[in-house]
TrEMBL record:
Species this protein is from: Rhodococcus oryzae
Full protein name: Replication-associated recombination protein A
Keyword presence, RNA-binding: no
SMART domains with a match to the protein in the record: AAA
Keywords: ATP-binding, Nucleotide-binding
Matching Pfam families: AAA (PF00004), AAA_assoc_2 (PF16193), MgsA_C (PF12002)
Amino acid sequence: MSDWLGSTDGGADAGLFAAPGEPADHAGPVTAGLPPVRPDAPLAVRMRPVSLDEVVGQGHLLGPGAPLRRLVDGSGAASVMLYGPPGTGKTTLASLISRATGRRFEALSALSAGVKDVRAVIDLARRRLTAGEQTVLFIDEVHRFSKTQQDALLAAVENRIVLLVAATTENPSFSVVSPLLSRSLVLQLHSLTEADIGALLDRAVADPRGLGGSVSMTAEARDHLVRLASGDARRALTALEAAAGAALDSPAEDGSGVVDLETVEASVDKAAVRYDRDGDQHYDVISAFIKSIRGSDVDAALHYLARMITAGEDPRFIARRLVVHASEDIGMADPTALQTATAAAQAVQLIGMPEARLALAQATIHLATAPKSGAVIAALGAAMADVSAGKSGLVPPHLRDGHYAGAEKLGNAVGYRYPHNAPDGVLPQQYPPDELVGVDYYEPTGHGAEREIAARVGKLRRIVRG
C-alpha cells in the first residue's frame, strides 16, 4: 500500500519506483523534478505537492532546523523512519527528499522487493559514492520486510552508503529490528486536521492540476468530505474525485458541476474504518476498548466495539478479551460478569457473525456498567510474586495426601479437621506453609458485591487463623 500521493503503479511514476535494473522513464538523478503526471492520473496523484509550500500538516516536523526540513532542503544526513497513518504524506515527503541537490533516488516496495534487490541497490549506491554521488533509498511499507531483509540494510545505513528514508503505517518499535531502528531517526506523522483536509479540498477544486474549477463545492459537501477523510488526504481526494465525476455527469447549462451533500452521499458509500488487524491499530483499538470498559464509559466501549466489528475483527478475539476483562477488572465486585462474558464467547462459537455481535454488545454493556475491582488480579499477582521469590514452603503435614499405604506413618493427613463437621462449616486450621501464615493476598474493595464479601472474608480469616 503506497502512501498519499505516492502511486506505485506504472506510467508517470514508473521511473521513480523502478526496481534495480529496470529501465526508468527518465535518465539521470532525480534532482530537478519528477516525470510529468498523466492528465488521466487519479486526482490524488495529480495533486501531489511539488514543494514544501504545498505540503499541508506536519508542521511539527517541517519547522526551521527540524530534521525533516533539513532532509527536504538537502542539508540533512540522517536516515529516517516516517511513521504515521495512511494519507499523511510519507511518500510525498520521500519524493521531495529525492529532489534534494546532488542525491540520486532509488525506491523499493517491501511488498515486492527481496534481499537480492536490497543488495543490488546498495552495490549501486556504493559505486556512486566513489564518484561523489549520494543515494537516497526509499522503502515503502518497511514493516513488511523480513528480519533478514532489514539486516541487509544495516551496514549501508551505518556507513551512510545510502540515506534511508523508510515509510511505515506500523509502530516501528514493533515491526523494525532494533539495530536498524537505533541507526535512524523515527519521525511520527500525525493525521491531518480538519482545517488541513479542507484546504486540500479547496486547492484540488481550483488548481489546474486538479479539477481546474470545473466543479463548485457547497459548504455542506465540503464538511462531509472532511468528516469522511478522518485525517487521510488521499481518502479525501478520492472521495472528491468520485463526487466531482458524478456532478459532471449531470452538469449545469454552463457545463459546470455542483458537488453538493446529496452528490457526495450518493458517490461515497461510507468512510473506511482505519484498522489493520495485523498492525498497531489492532492493538490500539482493543486497548482503548478495554480501558473504556474499565473506566465505565459504556458509550466509548460500544464505539470501539463497533469499530472492530465494522473492520472485520475476529469476534473470537473480542470475546476472549471480554472474558479476561471480567475477572481482571470486575472480579468479585460482580461475579455474574464472567458468566455474561463466557456466554457471549459461547454465542460467538454457536451462531457466528453477524448475529453474535449482539451478544458481544450485551457483554460489553454489562462489563462497562458493572462495579469494578482489581482485587482478583492483585491477589493472584501477589501470590505469584511470593512463589517467584522462593516462598514455597512445605505443605503442612495434615493437608498432605493420605490416600496411599504408609502415608499415616509419615504423618500425612494426620490431624486434618473436616470443616463440614463444624456448625458453620469453618474451623481453625493452618492451611498455608509456615512462612506464609497470616499473609493476606485477597483484599476486597467496597465496590458492588465485594462490600459484603469484605466483611465475610474478615470473619473467615479470624476463625480459620484462630
